[in-house]
Amino acid sequence: MAIHSEAGKPAAQEQLVNVAHLISAYYSNKPDKSDVSQGVTFGTSGHRGSAFKNTFTDTHIAAISQALAEYRDANGITGPMYVGMDTHALSEAAFTTAIEVLAANQVKLVVQQERGYTPTPVISHAILDYNDGKDTGLADGVVITPSHNPPEDGGFKYNPPHGGPADSDVTNQIQARANAIIQADLQGVKRMSYQIACDTGLVQEVDFSDNYINQLDQVVDMQAIANAGLKLGTDPLGGAGLHYWDKIAKRYGLNIDVVNRKVDHQFGFMRRDKDGKIRMDCSSQYAMAGLIDLKDRFDLAFGNDPDFDRHGIVTKTNGLMNPNHYLAVAIEYLYSHRKEWPADLKVGKTLVSSSMIDRVALDAGLTVAEMPVGFKWFVQGMLNSKIGFAGEESAGGIFLRRNGKPWATDKDGIILCLLAAEILAVTGKDPSEHYQAFTEKFGAPLYTRIDVAATHAQKQALSKADKNAITSTDLAGEPIISIQTHASGNNAAIGGVKVATENGWFAARPSGTEEIYKIYAESFNGEKHLQLLIEEAQKLVARIFENVT
Questions:
Q1: Same domain flag for 413 and 298
Q2: Which end of the chain offers a freer environment for a tag, N or C, measured as fewer CB atoms within 10 Å?
Q3: 348-369 tens-digit pLDDT
Q4: Strand runs labelled E in 300-408
């Protein structure tokens, strides 16, 4: 994909969303009941959409909230529900709707005081903290966020009592019931006004940050960071954890400079992403251009997306790190420095994450648990302390406490940023320098992802592909050593196919939201080999499509 001429430059005025129009559309627009694309659809990260497209409206959130209340009743979930939201404009509106419906269903709710924002990992951490040692009366949670998506988008995600993203069995039930409610014009939805809901005593306000921040030294060596006297910079990209950094700095005696303190529903302070759009992607060198420009002011800098489940690491030596590179470094460091961790802990990675992780793990004598795309696949391994670290190529990761117990079961961008500081403090080398040493030892891979147009029928064929559909014996000049349609870590279907050779691989998966399929590819043999992998991947996928009408 060609890089937009305005990529990395400040957002243009005409790009900024009209927040008043957006909120008006949230309440006035209704989904077309005959159009499936306007219904409730839970993907890998909850239901997402936009009021302008009739895909994220008061109707959707009321239906989802009612379905969620009924699911809790049916499954005996009687503890409090922790509700957090990020800084997207639609998150505010959806928060109100959710409180009105959930409270009317007599759900006990815990929210951030003064209607403040809450990072995704903080909700996961709070759920686990509350449920620790309990068998009944368990808590669950909701996070209202579309992650790094553009300002006009909204998202709604459910975390059951295990603290992590709900799996498909759960979301399919909620989705089906919510769509049935929409088809019935919201009949059966219980609702009260927001003010009355707050007056019922069912809505408890707390400061989520206190407990989370006070426990941070149980998961990251905060004393080592403080002792090193590091000068740290952060750009929260106007996200839900912006106010956490000052509190963290004060609590642990750290030198953290928050270079951007703006919270703006338009996200008008953002630099434009590679396609020219406003997207709060902390792993994009274009979206993060403002912080990268300041990198020489700091020993280390970092950023997060609006719900703080992702991380972007900026080093003096090499600027913004590729997420795959940082994951490999984090894994090697953690498994060699967490002396209280059990020796048999596995490494969790998605099947589209870099093979550098496999090479690092093999060298360290570690077992890799490779899972399908989606963080929900790591929940049980983290909850049961069978996996020490879990990460995905899109800058998301989580790891256990220093004593080997679970911290959270969702991605945590805060601790991944602080871990980078710990690595520098303890080793004297920043994560980029560690990765450079890996390339000298294991080779320097090149990684890419492209999108290819595909019809709905073609996407269905790819998602159900059998490994026998790949009849070739070689790929990009090397013998094929594995063909996967199921993940090796748990034998779950990957919804596509992955083909690997000794020095390269590709994976092809259909998009859940667009008429495209995605090709991920990585080569340890240079750019030409990478391009050949992509070309041959497209040809192999085309063969899968041959009988599709």
A1: yes
A2: C
A3: 999 999 999 999 999 999 999 9
A4: 300-304, 311-315, 319-320, 346-350, 368-371, 387-392, 396-399
Q: How much is the pLDDT for 62?
A: 98
- Taking residues 164-186, what's their average pLDDT? 97
Structure tokens at 172: 């399919």
Task: Compute the distance between CA of residue 447 and CA of residue 325 in angstroms, rounded to an integer.
Answer: 10
Q: Are residues 171 and 246 in the same domain?
A: no
Q: What average pLDDT is seen over the chain?
A: 96
- Residue 134 domain-assigned? yes
Task: Indicate if 224 and 319 belong to the same structural domain.
Answer: yes
Contact by Cβ (8 Å): 391, 358? no
Beta bridge partners of 310: 396
Share of the chain above pLDDT 90, in %: 96
Q: What is the mean pLDDT of residues 496-513?
A: 93
Instruction: Please tell me whether residues 207 and 226 are part of one structural domain.
Output: no
- Greatest alpha-carbon pair distance for the chain in Å reads 69
Instruction: Indicate the residue among 387, 412, 442 that finishes a domain.
Output: 442
Q: How far does CA 153 lie from the centroid of its chain?
A: 15
Answer yes or no: is 501 within a domain: yes
Q: Do 411 and 453 sit in the same domain of this protein?
A: no
Q: pTM for the complete prediction? A: 0.96
Total domains, the chain? 3
pLDDT in the model for residue 301: 98
Half-sphere exposure of 286 (CA within 13 A, CB side): 17
Q: For the residues of 449-499, what is the DSSP string, one character each?
A: EEEEE--HHHHHHHHT--GGG---SEETTEE--EEEEE-TTT--EEEEEEE
For the segment 37-67, what is each residue's pLDDT rounded down to a tens digit?
Answer: 999 999 878 999 999 999 999 999 999 999 9
Band of pLDDT at residue 1, cut at 50, 70 and 90: low
In a domain? residue 3: no
Domain for residue 8, yes or no? no
Q: Domain boundary residue among 211, 231, 258?
A: 211
Write the CATH number for 413. Answer: 3.40.120.10
* CATH number of the domain residue 478 falls in: 3.30.310.50
**Six-digit token string for 228:** 């090193």
> Residue 229 burial by CB count (10 A; 0-12/13-18/19+): exposed, middle or buried?
exposed
How confident is the model at residue 5, as a pLDDT? 95
- pLDDT for 184-204, tens place per residue? 999 999 999 999 999 999 999
- Shared domain for 180 and 87, answered yes or no, is yes
Single-letter amino acid, residue 325: H
Q: Which of 431, 414, 434 is nearest to 222 (CA)?
A: 414
The answer to whether residue 222 scores a pLDDT higher than 80 is yes
Residues 129 and 36 in one domain: yes
Domain that residue 515 falls in? 446-545
* pLDDT recorded at residue 425: 98
pLDDT of residue 44: 77
Give yes or no: residues 251 and 165 share one domain: no
**What is the DSSP secondary structure assignment for residue 310, as one 8-state letter?**
B
Q: Return the structure tokens found at 293.
A: 């420009």
How large is the C-alpha radius of gyration of the chain?
A: 23
Q: Give 468-476 contacts, CB < 8 A, sequence gap 24+.
A: 469/497, 469/543, 469/544, 470/497, 470/499, 470/540, 471/543, 472/536, 472/540, 474/501, 475/499, 475/501, 475/504, 475/506, 475/533, 475/536, 476/501, 476/504, 476/523, 476/529, 476/532, 476/533, 476/536
Give me the pLDDT at residue 45, please.
81
